[in-house]
Amino acid sequence: MINIKTSREIELMSVAGEIVGDTHKYLKPYLKPGITTAEIDSLARDYIISRGATPSCYHYEGYPANICISINEEVVHGIASNRKLKDGDIVTLDICACYKGYHGDSAWSYGVGNISDEKKYLLEHTEKALYEGLNVIKEGARVGDIGYAVETYALKHNLGVVKELVGHGVGSSLHEDPEVPNYGKKGTGPLLKAGMVIAVEPMLNLGTADVYLLDDDWTVITADGCPSAHFEHTILVTKDGYTILTKR
Ligand code: MF3
Ligand code: CO
Hints:
The chain has helices at residues 7-27, 37-50, 117-134, 143-156; strands at 54-55, 68-71, 74-76, 90-99, 102-111, 160-161, 167-169, 176-180, 197-200, 203-205, 211-213, 220-222, 228-230, 233-238, 241-244. By secondary structure, the protein is α+β, with helices and mostly antiparallel strands. The chain has one domain: Alpha-Beta Complex (Creatine Amidinohydrolase). The protein is globular, with a radius of gyration of 17 Å. Bound molecules: 2-amino-4-trifluoromethylsulfanyl-butyric acid and cobalt (II) ion.
């Protein structure tokens, strides 16, 4: 069942989304060579709590950290540790916060120091793929239209589209219906209606689309070891478009 949010729910989700966007802005200057991912994770936790929210990922299905931090070939759900960021890395922060019972969810990939032209290309086109997907959203469009737009753009730019992980509805649960794949056929899938809130989140690889799960049971990495990027916004569907709730 796809929830249509009430105006009160939309207000709370706007605050949750704003906190997530602001957490990204707060953390960005810290993403320099030498900082550990555990330090980033605890800065994120403290900031989210200072805003009256809680980190949704913490203990979500047993997840052991506060936000997901994934480096280079790590696609999603990397776990904070004493690993240090290095010059030339790309790092994805996937941040979820819960405010008065409602969640916001946004991932963003950043370059650390000087990154290669290939990695710049991956970041540029994964971010653009997110907006390609968002720009088809309005009441009356279908979920398959989003996936079609993302996939078409990604394939045109020779990037691998991760299929095992998908976007999702967001609300009083972090993951609600519908699933929002980054592939699909136009005119198929659930109908979008004003008041729905969904997270659109392309995960694109410089190499093949294939991924696998590490022994820690969380971290997903690319099968060929090539870098991966991830850009995600939580949005509200409106009559003639969408509103980004996780603006930054
Ligand atoms: N934004 C991530 C997702 O949609 C949140 C994962 S929380 C975790 O998958 F606990 F599963 F890491
Ligand atoms: Co998500």
